[in-house]
């Protein structure tokens, strides 16, 4: 029975790579959480982090460092790309710069937290703004943590692990 459901999931995905977990659950008559659990069990189990920063000097070293910790790291250079990738990539965590051209990090966070698809993705604000009012605004918008630049890489990694643990309810 277990293998039969897995085989059916794989077949459905082969026939339509854009099929949603909820549609698979409906077709197979299995709870969506069970479908998500099964798909995770036979796909890449590394946690995915989206880094959103328009400064390549921040983005690349952080990306390399997190990849060396065995995270899958994707990046976005502006708020619009961040929202799009949040929905298509479904990261477990977003590290979000506050000051970006076009749409700032506060607006990105606000939009992500209003969207049913992305509302539960934890966000760590990473910014040069260290005023208390900026921190409060970021946290009130829905950010799970707030780290100021320049940052200590070891501290940021510890905060990432902590936020990921909390988001999984561990």
Q: What is the topology?
A:
Blueprint: H1 2-15, H2 21-28, H3 32-41, E1 48-52, H4 56-68, E2 72-76, H5 79-89, E3 93-97, H6 105-114, E4 123-127, H7 132-141, E5 145-148, H8 153-167
Parallel strand pairs: 1-2, 1-3, 3-4, 4-5
Structure, described:
The chain has helices spanning 2-15, 21-28, 32-41, 56-68, 79-89, 105-114, 132-141, 153-167; strands at residues 48-52, 72-76, 93-97, 123-127, 145-148. The protein is built from 8 helices and 5 strands; from the N terminus they run αααβαβαβαβαβα. Strands 2-1-3-4-5 form a 5-stranded parallel beta sheet, with helices on both faces. Strand 3 (93-97), helix 6 (105-114) and strand 4 form a beta-alpha-beta unit. With 170 residues, the protein is of the alpha/beta class. Helix 2 packs across helix 3 and helix 5 packs parallel to helix 6 (105-114). Helix content is 54%, strand content 14%. The chain folds into 2 domains: 2-41, Arc Repressor Mutant, subunit A (Orthogonal Bundle), CATH 1.10.10; 48-167, Response regulator (Rossmann fold).
What CATH calls the topology of the largest domain is Rossmann fold
CATH top level label of the largest domain: Alpha Beta
Topology order in helix (H) and strand (E) letters:
HHHEHEHEHEHEH
Overall body shape:
elongated
Name the poorly predicted regions.
none
Number of strands: 5
* Whole-number tally of structural domains: 2
Report the major sheet.
Answer: 5 strands, parallel
List the total number of helices: 8
Relevant CATH superfamily of the largest domain: Response regulator
- Spatial separation of the terminal alpha carbons: 30 Å
- How much of the sequence lies in strands comes to 5-15%
Strand-pairing-aware structural class? alpha/beta
Mean pLDDT: 89
Strand order of the largest sheet: 2-1-3-4-5
């Amino acid at each position: 029975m277990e293998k039969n459901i897995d085989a059916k999931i794989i077949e459905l995905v082969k026939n339509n790579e854009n099929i949603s977990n909820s549609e698979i659950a409906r077709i197979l008559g299995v709870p969506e959480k069970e479908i998500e659990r099964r798909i995770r069990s036979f796909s890449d189990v590394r946690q995915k982090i989206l880094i959103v920063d328009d400064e390549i000097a921040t983005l690349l070293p952080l990306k390399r460092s997190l990849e060396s910790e065995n995270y899958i790291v994707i990046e976005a250079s502006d708020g619009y790309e961040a929202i799009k990738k949040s929905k298509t990539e479904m990261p477990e965590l977003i590290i979000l710069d506050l000051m970006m051209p076009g749409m700032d990090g506060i607006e990105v966070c606000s939009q992500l937290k209003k969207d049913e698809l992305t509302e539960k993705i934890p966000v760590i604000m990473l910014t040069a703004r260290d005023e208390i009012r900026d921190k409060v605004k970021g946290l009130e918008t829905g950010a799970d943590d707030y780290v100021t630049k320049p940052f200590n890489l070891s501290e940021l990694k510890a905060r990432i692990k902590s936020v990921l643990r909390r988001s999984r309810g561990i």
